[in-house]
Design goal:
Layout lengths: L2 E5 L4 H7 L1 H9 L4 E7 L3 H5 L6 E5 L1 H7 L2 H14 L6 E4 L4 H9 L5 E3 L16 E2 L8 H13 L28 E5 L11 H13 L3 E4 L4 H11 L5 E3 L5 H9 L3 E5 L2 H8 L4 E4 L5 H4 L7 E4 L8 H11 L4 H9 L3
Parallel strand pairs: 1-2, 1-4, 2-3, 4-5, 5-6, 7-8, 7-10, 8-9, 10-11, 11-12
Helix pairs in contact: 1-11, 2-7, 8-9
Protein name: Lipopolysaccharide heptosyltransferase 1
Membrane topology: Peripheral membrane protein
InterPro entries: Glyco_trans_9, LipoPS_heptosylTferase-I, LPS_LOS_Heptosyltrfase
Length: 334
């Protein structure tokens, strides 16, 4: 096998958690080239992967919102890049119309996708010449690895390998100092995924007492206002300026601890091997959570608001061992 195309178009957290599929394929087939098709909005993230050989992208999301002629021309031009090589396999681990169209337009006689009951949009089935087995129960991220292995005929082995390398920051993400830094990702795309601001304040105060400095990123005016409410009540905390995706990733990489709700940047923190606590209110931690011994842990049952005590216990857990010990522990898992 010479070349494989992975199709996973959006979103940030899903793409992050799909990246280990590339390392799995390259372990199973040394020397294989693995390309990746994504929406332009998330292409920079895929470029950070040292395992992906070629990143294909188009402004699909932007065109859907604005319907600009320039974006349509960019999409049309991207088809030439998509068809530049013939692929031995195309693996669509997204399963909606746009990913199926990408798979159909690319050059291959073997296009593998989910079974109809597992598709995000059932009409996507038109593009596939073969199907994965039934989607495995349990963790969705491990399930993607299983599905790709079924398609290409290999067994999944060991913990996920993300293999990310961020570009060097142009400037420091926050003022340096002797205190360890904890980032709070309090903002979410949906209100039912939010953890109460009073809970963030309580955890922030506890971390401040332990000598941490809390930093608060944001993406909208409303999120900034909430960050300012938290910072006003937490000693030695800072509301960060508006940052790009790359700058937020670099900020995460400079932190000692990341605490946040079920959002893409917290999944990225896990992939960057930061000490990570992910809080669940309305989504399933068993399906979408993160876990790595003494480094990453999910809190909550996905149906109720986790108490402050549970989050503090999770923070204690991920801070309980030096990273070197946690790394040794991880090497024995899987």
């Amino acid at each position: 096998m010479k070349r494989v195309l992975i199709v996973k178009v959006t979103s940030l957290g899903d793409i992050v958690q799909a990246l280990p599929v590339v390392a799995d394929i390259k372990r199973a087939f040394p020397g294989v080239q693995v390309d990746w098709a994504a929406d332009e909005a998330f292409a920079e993230l895929v470029h950070w992967s040292e395992s992906v050989d070629r990143v294909l992208c188009a402004p699909l999301r932007r065109f859907k919102k604005a319907r600009r002629w320039g974006d349509l021309k960019a999409i049309w031009a991207s088809i030439a890049d998509l068809r530049a090589y013939r692929y031995d396999f195309i693996i669509d681990i997204h399963g909606v119309y746009k990913s199926a169209i990408i798979a159909f337009l690319a050059r291959s006689s073997r296009r593998i996708g989910y079974q109809s009951q597992d598709l995000g949009e059932r009409g996507a089935a038109f593009a596939y010449t073969g199907r994965f087995g039934p989607r495995p129960q349990g963790n969705a991220w491990h399930g993607m690895r299983i599905s790709a292995g079924e398609a290409l005929g290999y067994e999944v082995e060991g913990p996920p390998i993300y293999n990310l390398r961020l570009p060097e920051p142009v400037r420091e993400p926050f003022e340096s100092g002797s205190a360890p830094v904890a980032a709070f990702f309090h903002a979410t795309s949906k209100d039912d995924k939010k953890w109460p601001l009073t809970h963030w304040v309580a955890v922030g105060r506890e971390l401040a007492e332990r000598g941490f400095r809390v930093v608060l990123p944001w993406g909208s005016a409303g999120e900034r206002a909430e960050a300012e409410q938290i910072a006003a009540q937490v000693p030695n905390s800072t509301v960060l300026p508006k940052m790009s995706v790359t700058e937020i990733a670099q900020m995460i990489d400079a932190c000692s601890l990341v605490v946040g709700t079920d959002t893409g940047f917290v999944h990225l923190a896990h992939a960057l091997q930061k000490r990570t606590v992910m809080i669940f209110m309305a989504t399933s931690p068993s399906h979408c959570g993160v876990e790595s011994p003494y480094r990453s842990i999910s809190v909550g049952d996905g149906q109720s608001v986790p108490p402050i005590s549970a989050t503090l216990a999770a923070i204690n857990y991920v801070l309980s061992e030096p990273l070197e010990s946690a790394a040794r522990q991880r090497s024995t898992v899987g």
